[in-house]
């Protein structure tokens, strides 16, 4: 099961993707605060709704679906660099092969 931080990052990625380019650091900070404030069940339900999945989806299928959600891009000054965040080693499930 994905930990809470992973679920938060995936929801933020979906929301940023919906909002489009020009998303600044201040807006990102506010968005992160709002997502962190969600209770666990609301976080799950919001992810399920954003991914257009049935509410009754099992955790394993949800986790597999979350693997395909690209993480937010790095914030540089007031705009995104449009480059993926490569500051961490890939998790085992992110590695190919």
Give the arrangement of secondary structure elements.
Layout: H1 4-19, H2 25-36, H3 40-50, H4 59-66, E1 73-76, E2 79-84
Antiparallel strand pairs: 1-2
Tell me the helix content.
Answer: 40-55%
Based on Cα principal axes, name the global outline: globular
Low-confidence stretches: 75-80
Q: What is the string of SSEs from the N terminus onward? A: HHHHEE
On the 0 to 100 scale, the average pLDDT is 80
Main sheet summary: 2 strands, antiparallel
Report strand order across the widest sheet: 1-2
Helical stretch tally: 4
Number of domains: 1
Distance between the termini: 21 Å
- Residues in β-strands, percent: 5-15%
Total number of β-strand segments? Answer: 2
What value does the Rg take, in angstroms?
14 Å
Account of the protein in words:
The protein has one domain. Helix 1 crosses helix 2 and helix 1 (4-19) packs across helix 3. It starts with a helix and ends in a 13-residue tail after the last strand. Helices cover 48% and strands 10% of the residues. A two-stranded antiparallel sheet has the order 1-2. With 97 residues, it is mainly alpha-helical. Residues 75-80 have low confidence and may be disordered.
Provide tags for this entry:
4 helices, 48% helix, 10% strand, mainly alpha, 97 residues
């Amino acid at each position: 099961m994905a930990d809470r931080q992973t679920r938060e990052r995936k929801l933020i990625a979906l929301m940023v993707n919906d909002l489009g380019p020009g998303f600044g650091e201040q807006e990102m900070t506010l968005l992160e605060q709002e997502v962190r404030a969600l209770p666990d069940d609301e976080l799950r339900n919001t992810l399920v709704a954003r991914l257009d999945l049935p509410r009754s989806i099992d955790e394993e299928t949800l986790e597999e679906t979350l693997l395909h959600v690209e993480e937010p891009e790095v914030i540089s000054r007031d705009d995104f660099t449009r480059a993926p965040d490569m500051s961490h080693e890939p998790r085992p499930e992110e590695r190919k092969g």
